[in-house]
TrEMBL record:
<dbReference type="InterPro" id="IPR002035">
    <property type="entry name" value="VWF_A"/>
</dbReference>
<protein>
    <recommendedName>
        <fullName>VWFA domain-containing protein</fullName>
    </recommendedName>
</protein>
<dbReference type="Pfam" id="PF13519">
    <property type="entry name" value="VWA_2"/>
</dbReference>
<dbReference type="InterPro" id="IPR051266">
    <property type="entry name" value="CLCR"/>
</dbReference>
<feature type="domain" description="VWFA">
    <location>
        <begin position="1"/>
        <end position="127"/>
    </location>
</feature>
<dbReference type="InterPro" id="IPR036465">
    <property type="entry name" value="vWFA_dom_sf"/>
</dbReference>
Length: 127
């Protein structure tokens, strides 16, 4: 993902952060050939934390084009974060934003089965 796609990704993430309330939690995981937990786990979206997150969105090197695209590494890390939460909310979402060009060509059906029950999953391809 490069250029316009990266700009669209950052704009989308910024919009999501703006919409969150102080009681909402967010984690951002970037992935190319490996996954990276950009925020270091789930963070409460207080006003101060939103400023920190917005800065990471705009400046973090992991949100720029890297190697290949291994969707499974990002998905795996996201699922692990959801499964390790101490507090489970009635509304949970897992957003996967990708250019849709997975260079691993894997079947992720077993991985998908590990998503916590009741989680709303959204995949958006930024083509």
């Amino acid at each position: 993902m490069q250029g316009e796609k990266i700009a669209l990704l950052k704009k989308t993430l910024s919009y999501i952060v703006e919409q969150l309330k102080s009681t909402d939690r967010l984690s951002i995981i970037s992935f190319d050939t490996v996954a990276n937990d950009v925020l270091g786990g789930l963070k409460m979206m207080t006003t101060d934390k939103k400023v920190v997150v917005e800065n990471k969105i705009q400046t973090h090197a992991c949100l720029n084009a890297g190697g290949g695209t291994h969707i499974g590494s990002g998905l795996q890390m996201g699922i692990n974060l959801l499964n390790q939460r101490k507090t489970k909310n009635p509304l949970t979402s897992l957003l996967l934003l990708t250019d849709g060009q997975d260079n691993q060509l894997c079947d992720y059906s077993d991985l998908i089965q590990r998503i916590p029950q009741g989680t709303m999953c959204i995949t958006a391809c930024l083509v």
